[in-house]
Specification:
This protein has 496 residues and is α+β, with helices and mostly antiparallel strands. 48% of the residues lie in helices and 12% in strands. The chain is globular, with a radius of gyration of 24 Å. The N terminus is likely disordered.
Length: 496
């Protein structure tokens, strides 16, 4: 590329939040509260979350953040999100972390499926395309081409990779109806047709593309379900059924400061004879490659590196919220509270330090691709559900009755007679009543609301059942070094 061409590419326009919002008005099929949603950006369940996500694109597009948020596309030279960067050095991985943290801090770690999550998976797929070539070279080529297209167009991807909980005692092909789990029902010269359902497509309502794959083990006979494809979210036949939205019409941002802005909508996906052209098929009826895409590429590691950046950010927010709550209740200097807060701070520091450890211990493979440390990543994921529940319980103990002795809503401040009582009796030693109520409302929204409880469940099962994640730790731990020390101790000469 010439110097003039490189300059032009580097000044290319980034995708903006306004462009994301406009793209959502494409006729996608979203169903909630007994009806089909007209416009996602106008529906009370989704409009504020859509704007929170759009803000992330504006952060990435800010000229003053160009180096932190982007890197030059290897294909065009234009700036693209660092989430798509395949790291080859430890400095590259640190650059990815700083990018992820910038977006996570903008949502206080409360939106897990921002556009950088599935981008990490596709970066991992494209880093080791030979895994897909095991099913045919055309599939490896498809993965790389789609990765480059998504990267260079600042695409927002979500995924649905878990089968529905219909009858987990039977594999997909033994269900009472073979089209319950999402699978191939027809092969055509120009592509394949998918029918069935899959979960749990968080943020699919707001995305450009849906990645359909399967991370669960597949049994012999499940070949029809061993696929990986990408489809635009407005593809005919794709229907999205979000769980009950927590952001409601009557909700205000004072009483529900987090719910009202950051509910990213987990979706159940129905595929009603959805056509996918061959060029967007990455795995086809191949259980081995369906399994290997997660473990023989760094995809699962890159995606979960982003998730741990987000989680560490959320924990810092949680700890800051607890600190402010203690200040509002006047308990901040109490020795017992200091001990509890010290334990919370220890948990946060462990998570953050394990995350940063990737930047020193991550191995680089024979192709020059850096893989985040499996033992380090899966160790913290294995403990995440235990840490998170314990931390939330500690904050409940610190709060006492503070979060349930508040005015009924922001409207109470508008009634002069009520406002006078509230101002007198609900103030704190550090703040007026409205400030104190605002802090405690936020704490309740984080812990006690439907939104807060969804987050508790999300973190508990984020990596799947904890015993599965612990099995990953067992697989990747350096047992040879540990047992070698035992053998060396056994071989010590007798003491004379």
């Amino acid at each position: 590329m010439t110097t003039q061409g490189a300059a032009a590419a580097n000044s290319a326009a980034m995708r903006t939040g306004a462009e994301l919002l406009r793209s959502l008005d494409d006729g996608r099929q979203v169903f909630v509260d007994g009806e089909r949603v007209g416009k996602v950006t106008e529906h009370p369940a989704f409009r504020a979350a859509a704007r929170s996500l759009a803000h992330l694109l504006d952060i990435a597009a800010a000229p003053e953040l160009r180096e932190r948020m982007t890197y030059p596309s290897p294909k065009t030279g234009a700036p693209v999100w660092r989430a798509w960067q395949i790291p080859r050095t430890h400095a590259d991985l640190k650059a990815r972390r700083l990018f992820h943290e910038s977006w996570a801090e903008a949502t206080f770690g409360l939106m897990g499926r921002t556009p950088d999550h599935v981008a990490g998976f596709f970066a991992g797929f494209a880093a080791v395309p030979r895994v897909f070539a095991a099913g045919g070279q055309q599939f490896a080529d498809n993965v790389v081409r789609f990765y480059e297209h998504a990267r260079d167009n600042h695409a927002y991807l979500s995924y649905a990779i878990v089968p529905p909980q219909i009858d987990r005692s039977k594999p997909a092909h033994q269900q009472k109806d073979p089209t319950l789990h999402a699978g191939v029902v027809k092969e055509r010269d120009d592509g394949i047709v998918i029918s069935g359902c899959q979960q749990l497509a968080t943020a699919a309502v707001f995305s450009d593309w849906l990645h359909l794959a399967c991370i669960h083990p597949l049994a012999p006979g499940d070949e029809n379900y061993a696929n990986a494809v990408a489809m635009p979210v407005d593809t005919p036949g794709l229907k999205l059924y979000p769980r009950r939205p927590f952001a409601r019409e009557a909700m205000n941002s004072f009483d529900y400061p987090l719910t009202s802005r950051f509910d990213e909508a987990d979706c159940f996906c129905v595929f009603d004879n959805v056509f996918v052209p061959w060029e967007r098929v990455f795995i086809y009826r191949n259980p081995e490659v369906s399994r290997d895409q997660w473990w023989k590429t760094p995809a699962h590691l890159y995606g979960n590196h982003q998730a741990q950046c987000r989680y560490a950010t959320k924990l810092r927010f949680m700890l800051g919220l607890a600190k402010r709550m203690n200040e509002m209740t006047g308990n901040d200097a109490h020795p017992a509270v200091n001990i509890e807060m010290g334990e919370l701070a220890a948990f946060v520091t462990i998570v953050d330090s394990m995350l940063q450890a990737h930047e020193t211990v991550a191995p680089i493979d024979q192709d020059g691709v850096l893989w985040p440390s499996q033992a380090t990543l899966y160790s913290i994921m294995a403990l995440q559900s235990e840490f998170n529940g314990r931390m939330l319980e500690t904050i409940r103990e610190l709060a006492g009755a503070a979060m349930i002795t508040l005015p009924s809503s922001a409207e109470d401040f508008a009634n002069p007679a009520m406002a006078a009582d509230i101002a007198r009796y609900m103030q704190s030693g550090k703040a007026d009543a409205k400030t104190r109520v605002a802090i405690l409302r936020m704490a309740w929204d984080f812990i006690g609301s439907e939104f807060g409880n969804r987050h508790a469940l999300y973190e508990k099962f984020y990596g799947g059942a904890s015993f599965l994640v612990k099995q990953n730790v067992n697989r990747f731990f350096d047992w040879k070094r540990a047992t070698g020390m035992v053998d060396a101790a056994l071989a010590l000469p007798p003491v004379e």
